[in-house]
Task: inverse folding
């Protein structure tokens, strides 16, 4: 599917989709809690469905309804699947379910897209080996061989390429035979680890973490408790809607957002406020309007990988050079988001330079372009927004990839005035 975007006036209100990160974690934690848990307002997207289907394949009974998920959890139900589990392109599903597979006595095999199997896993494999779990990785599959119990040990892990390695370990550590102490080096995307810890505590376990997340201790022989939980709105997905107001003017309001959320990508609002927007909150409604020409920024985004592309498109119309640093780990996402973002941004006539760990973007007047998504949902969404402010038409090829995280993205864009045409 191709989407053609033409310059548009933006104004309106949209309900934020549920948090993808929280949905993944809630379904997994409910699966580890013995008893019935109810998850209301979950995100149903390609990625979260891979996690749900993966847990079912590992033995967890899960009922999916229109607006809720009911999980009849318990670690005693986990068993090795009889067939290879397909995870398509969901890196979150692969990393987090690899930890769950470590609890199983037997071998679990995951597979997925070519890009998924190319994404980093060795640091997680090295950490799991320290607790007696072997992970074999090749170009066709990833096989995890567990012993049914994990001992609890002092574990060292490098999290430079993905914070999901650490989250995977954290989720299973309360079930260990003894206490687990994790020493972390080079952690990126800290807010996602903070979200994991917060949700673990909501499901009744104790976690001790220092402020910088360099050492985390989890007492062993704990039990997750089943609960009911409501998934809050997603700031990562909402960033595209806010960016539309920043680029085009007008005003955008997004509802279903927790003002005090621990989601790291709430930071996007701070950034566009610094660039020249006015931000206001009322209950669960966040509103953005642009009141002056956009100013450039120099900012480290190591903890916020999912908004780098969104910040980049706002920078494309700012008055001056924006420098986005500490983003080397973007090369290991659904695509090489560092260099591929630079490539696609340059098609709009915007001056951009990519190096090993930074993007330098000099703002200007973007011209419409034909954009390749590189099978990356965030590429499709970000450049659709830039198309609203570009001269002429912008065509987004393979635009259906947005279903990975935000299935109703184009529907919601139309609600705020975006002029969009779909073609095959």
Result:
């Amino acid at each position: 599917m191709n989407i053609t975007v033409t310059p548009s006036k933006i104004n309106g209100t949209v309900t934020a989709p549920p948090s993808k990160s929280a949905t993944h974690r809630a379904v997994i934690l409910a699966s580890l809690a013995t008893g019935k848990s109810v998850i209301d307002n979950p995100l149903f997207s390609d990625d979260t469905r891979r996690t749900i289907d993966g847990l079912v394949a590992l033995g967890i009974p899960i009922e999916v309804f229109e607006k809720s998920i009911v999980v009849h959890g318990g670690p005693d139900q986990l068993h090795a699947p009889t067939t290879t589990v397909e995870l398509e392109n969901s890196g979150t599903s692969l990393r987090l379910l690899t930890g769950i597979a470590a609890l199983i006595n037997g071998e679990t095999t995951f597979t997925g897209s070519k890009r998924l199997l190319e994404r980093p896993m060795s640091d997680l494999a090295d950490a799991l080996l320290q607790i007696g779990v072997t992970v074999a990785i090749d170009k066709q599959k990833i096989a995890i061989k567990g012993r049914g119990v994990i001992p609890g040990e002092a574990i060292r892990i490098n999290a430079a390429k993905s914070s999901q390695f650490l989250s995977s370990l954290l989720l299973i550590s309360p079930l260990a035979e003894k206490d687990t102490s994790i020493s972390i080096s080079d952690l990126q995307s800290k807010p996602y680890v903070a979200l994991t810890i917060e949700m673990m505590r909501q499901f009744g376990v104790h976690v001790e973490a220092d402020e910088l997340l360099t050492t985390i201790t989890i007492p062993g022989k704990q039990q997750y408790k089943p609960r009911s939980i409501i998934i809050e709105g997603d700031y990562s997905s909402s960033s595209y809607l806010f960016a539309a107001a920043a680029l085009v003017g007008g005003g955008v309001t997004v509802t279903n957002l927790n003002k005090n959320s621990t989601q790291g990508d709430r930071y996007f609002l701070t950034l566009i406020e610094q660039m020249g927007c006015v931000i206001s909150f009322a209950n669960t409604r966040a509103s953005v309007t642009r009141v002056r020409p956009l100013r450039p920024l120099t900012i480290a985004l190591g903890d916020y990988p999912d908004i780098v592309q969104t910040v980049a498109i706002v920078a494309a119309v700012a008055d001056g050079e924006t420098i986005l640093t500490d983003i080397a780990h973007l090369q290991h996402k659904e695509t090489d988001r560092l260099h591929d973002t630079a490539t696609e941004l340059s098609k709009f006539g915007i001056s951009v330079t990519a190096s090993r760990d930074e993007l330098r973007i000099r703002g200007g007047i973007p011209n419409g372009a034909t954009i390749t998504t590189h099978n990356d949902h965030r590429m499709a969404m970000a450049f659709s927004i830039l198309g609203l402010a570009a001269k002429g038409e912008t065509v987004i090829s393979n635009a259906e990839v947005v279903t990975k995280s935000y299935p109703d993205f184009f529907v919601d864009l139309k609600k705020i005035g975006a002029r969009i045409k779909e073609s095959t």
Observations:
- The longest helix spans residues 235-248.
